[in-house]
């Protein structure tokens, strides 16, 4: 039989085992391994995956890729990022080292608000160039699907401008980029003492415009004691839901104010952060099928001693996902491999659980469970070729890249430079 591409000479394929109905699998068996393997690809989709002797004898391909006895994993799905902005905030990094907290910095003129003016002033071309450069780096670290949020404009035109930039990034860069509207990222300075007015702009102007233009798939919000309260979040998210947007929340990152509970009540696709989520909130999420997206690099960058309770969630049967939370303030981390390291060392996840979280469950968190996140017949051929002996090596040897090739829908989009 014919195939476009045959990848052969693979020492191991390691992938979550997806179930046909897109259900997350049992935490006791997060991934499966096929040794001495090969993969056949047709039209960007996986046609066959199995032992080298089987697959290579069945398929004749126009192009062959020699994996050089490396390991093949699914491409990473980074399901929570904020890459569209101009100015970085390394001054806040220094302030945190000097002992200031994220909330103190936000209240004293830093934080999200300090990224707003430069984003509002920037041309779409500048925002595009800067974000494209950031995303190319993510690709070089193995990311093949990405969720990207607006939220540094905080007025109708600037939010729509950010979403147009995300649309163009999706069209011009070689990976899938899923757009999320996050006008409720913070109260802009002009409405900091008039929350009702900003909420009416969100609900009467921004959300209807975003929905009408079909320019975002999800609506997200920063539900936290110093930003959007539970009642405010419920109002804004209900409005977004009424306009046909799917929902996400930044929930209970710092304080347990009931964000996880609300995510379940509203039927969010995911609730993210959850560093302080309550037992009840976690039980509610499980019941409602909300995916927990944990962002350990953020808590690491904020110098937190406490991480989200990944083990508790896994033992309760939730399909835990992880993501970088790449943003200019709380977490300037673009690396899914490093995020896996933190998931293992700081949250006690096994390397296999971390891989499942960074691929299969992350794809579910952006409603792409049937398309990406595992190496299965019929899914996108989104693959990473690694120069490693086994899966443990990725979180174990952190701080440098062991990737030799990144493939998106069958096309090589990154190759490590050879000497
Ligand atoms: O996910 N929590 C809200 N948003 C970002 C922080 C963004 C910023 O500080 O610019 C986050 O951590
Ligand atoms: Fe975030």
Please describe the structure with a list of short key phrases separated by commas or semicolons.
single chain; 419 residues; alpha/beta; Urease, subunit C, domain 1; TIM Barrel; 2 domains; eight-stranded parallel sheet; 24% strand; binds N-(iminomethyl)-L-glutamic acid; binds fe (iii) ion
Structure description:
This protein is α/β, with parallel strands linked by helices and 419 residues long. The chain has 2 domains: 2-75 and 374-415, Urease, subunit C, domain 1; 77-364, Metal-dependent hydrolases (TIM Barrel, Alpha-Beta Barrel). It is built from 16 helices and 16 strands. The protein is globular. The chain binds N-(iminomethyl)-L-glutamic acid and fe (iii) ion (FE).
Task: Give a brief rundown of this model.
This protein is of the alpha/beta class. The protein is built from 16 helices and 16 strands.
In which range does the helix fraction lie?
25-40%
Main sheet overview = 8 strands, mixed
> If you compute it from the alpha carbons, what radius of gyration comes out, rounded to the nearest whole angstrom?
21 Å
Tell me the number of structural domains: 2
Number of helices: 16
CATH-derived topology of the largest domain: TIM Barrel
Give the topology, please.
Blueprint: E1 2-16, E2 31-42, E3 45-51, H1 52-58, E4 60-66, E5 71-74, E6 76-78, H2 90-97, H3 102-107, H4 113-121, H5 124-140, E7 143-149, H6 156-172, E8 176-184, H7 195-213, E9 218-223, H8 230-242, E10 246-251, H9 259-266, E11 270-273, H10 279-288, E12 291-294, H11 296-301, H12 310-315, E13 321-322, H13 336-347, H14 351-358, H15 360-365, E14 383-386, H16 393-396, E15 403-408, E16 411-415
Parallel strand pairs: 1-4, 1-5, 6-7, 7-8, 8-9, 9-10, 10-11, 11-12, 12-13
Antiparallel strand pairs: 1-2, 2-3, 5-14, 14-15, 15-16
Helix pairs in contact: 5-6, 7-8, 9-10, 13-14
Bound molecules: N-(iminomethyl)-L-glutamic acid and fe (iii) ion.
């Amino acid at each position: 039989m014919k195939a476009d591409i045959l990848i052969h000479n693979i020492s191991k394929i390691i992938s979550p085992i997806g179930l046909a109905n897109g259900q997350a699998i049992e935490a006791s068996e997060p991934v499966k391994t096929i040794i001495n393997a090969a993969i056949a690809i047709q039209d960007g989709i996986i046609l066959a995956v199995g032992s080298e002797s089987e697959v290579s004898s069945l398929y004749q391909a126009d192009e062959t890729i020699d994996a050089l006895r490396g390991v093949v994993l699914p491409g990473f799905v980074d399901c929570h990022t904020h890459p569209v902005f101009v100015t970085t905030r390394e001054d806040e990094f220094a302030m945190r080292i000097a002992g200031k907290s994220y909330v103190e910095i936000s209240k004293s003129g830093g934080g999200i608000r300090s990224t707003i003016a430069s984003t509002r002033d920037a041309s779409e071309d500048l925002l595009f160039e800067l974000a494209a450069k950031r995303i190319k780096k993510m690709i070089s670290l193995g990311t093949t699907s990405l969720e990207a949020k607006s939220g540094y404009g905080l007025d109708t035109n600037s939010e729509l401008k950010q979403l147009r930039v995300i649309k163009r990034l999706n069209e011009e860069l070689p990976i899938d980029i899923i757009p999320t509207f996050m006008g409720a990222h913070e109260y802009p300075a002009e409405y900091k003492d008039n929350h009702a007015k900003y909420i009416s702009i969100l609900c009467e102007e921004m959300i209807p415009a975003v929905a009408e233009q079909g320019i975002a798939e999800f609506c997200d919000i920063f539900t936290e004691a110093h930003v959007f309260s539970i009642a405010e979040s419920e109002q804004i998210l209900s409005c977004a839901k009424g306009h046909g947007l799917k929902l996400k929340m930044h929930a209970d990152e710092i304080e347990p104010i009931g964000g996880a509970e609300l995510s379940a009540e509203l039927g969010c696709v995911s609730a993210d952060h959850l560093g302080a989520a309550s037992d009840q909130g976690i039980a509610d999420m499980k019941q409602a099928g909300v995916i927990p997206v944990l962002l350990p690099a953020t808590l690491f960058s904020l110098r937190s001693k406490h991480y989200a309770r990944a083990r508790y969630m896994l033992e309760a049967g939730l399909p835990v996902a992880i993501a970088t939370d790449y943003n200019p303030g709380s977490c300037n981390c673009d690396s899914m491999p490093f995020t896996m390291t933190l998931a293992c060392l700081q949250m006690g996840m096994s390397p296999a659980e971390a891989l499942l979280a960074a691929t299969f469950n992350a794809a579910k968190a952006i409603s792409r469970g049937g398309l990406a996140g595992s190496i299965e017949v019929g899914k996108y051929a989104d693959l990473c070729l690694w120069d490693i002996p086994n899966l443990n090596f990725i979180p174990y040897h952190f701080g440098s890249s062991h990737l030799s090739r990144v493939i998106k829908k069958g096309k090589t989009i990154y190759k490590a430079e050879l000497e």
